[in-house]
Amino acid sequence: MKDMLGREGVMTSEKALELLLGNLAEKKTKKRAVRIGESLGMVCAEDIVAAEDLPAFARSTVDGYAVRAEDTFGATETMPAYLTLSREIFMGEPADFILPDDTAAKIPTGGMLPGLADAVVMFEHVQVIDGRMLEVMKAVAPGENVIQAGADLKCNEVVVSRGHRMRPADIGASAGLGVTEVMVFGRPVVSIISTGDEIVPPEQRPSLGQIRDTNSYVIAGMVTEAGGVPIRKGIFRDDYTVIRDAVEDAMKDSDAIAVSGGTSVGTKDMIARIIEDIGNPGILFHGLSLKPGKPMIGGVMNSIPVFGLPGHPAAVSVCLDIFMRPILNALCGFEERRADKLKGVVLARLSRNVSSSQGREEHIRAVLEEREDGLWAVPLLGKSGLIRTLVHADGIFVIPVNVNGIEKGETVEVRLS
Fold first, then answer.
1. CB neighbours of 169 closer than 8 A, spacing ≥ 6?
2. What is the pLDDT of residue 24?
3. pTM of the predicted model, to two decimals?
4. Upstream peptide bond of 55 is cis (omega within 30 degrees of 0)
5. Which of 215, 398, 384 is nearest to 292 (CA)?
6. For residue 230, what are the domain limits?
């Protein structure tokens, strides 16, 4: 089987992605400082390091009485230990005193332990005799019901590593350490160029032979989901000079470019020529062992990755799912872990036999059904130009290259949409 450049052996999507990533080398978006509250979803460009212990003081994890643990040793309900209530500790106030022997201090959850106190007895294990005398009916060990200073984070410990995408928990931990700004990589900007004499804007009623622009909106949504910033440049007619001008203009303010349409071999196949003419290095692949999405083009122009996407919405979605997220992750310095790859993946049994053409990686949309005997994936079979399969699908499962199909009842991994 030949690719669309006439070369023997159609390239796999895995090899194609490897080529793209290899040609981006160390290219990254620019670093910038943002307020910690604005960093959600952005990638750390520098380690966030604790400048102090967290917590900065030993504090109680329960409502009760701060004590010296040794003063409670041997205490039971039948033979309680007797302690004198010395004072009360209030939230947000320093407990800047030493707890004397055989005394206790009333303390709320989160309250600071006084000096020499090393444990807290819960209220339910204490009987108040006369407002000053306490019966402790359960012994506590040193450190019981207490979070020690630095138990959460130690001074100089890395809290969030470079290359990590900021989550709500990361933002909260940073704020708890007094971090108000964080250095992040900028969100990659992706220019979206729609091509085709038959394409019209959504607000325009198409004449016979025309269709509304669907792909640029699909692309923009997927770019946003992948952490990028989409810029829809507009619809351009099938003219070499017009499209080349649009691509060169997009190169001025983009980290990546997605061109929709014009990737099938034919008289209007100009995207490949434009990428090759601008070059450095130019086209890396044209045609993949992929269904849907075989005619996809991938290239790099002066360190800017460019995707020549098929015209059908389902094919566009599959190609972006395979290539866009990893490329944008690389551009913004995100270091993906195995746990990240497993997010949004569920196991389900296939509801029917599905055949596949050997030699092509096939991506099939499916609806998930919860049945009495577990989760089932119901394939949504249809042409790649159908919008219905995009809207109704819960996710996609993959039939690998050189596999003829998957039988009913077999377990598949479904990547949720």
1. none
2. 86
3. 0.76
4. yes
5. 384
6. 13-29+187-336
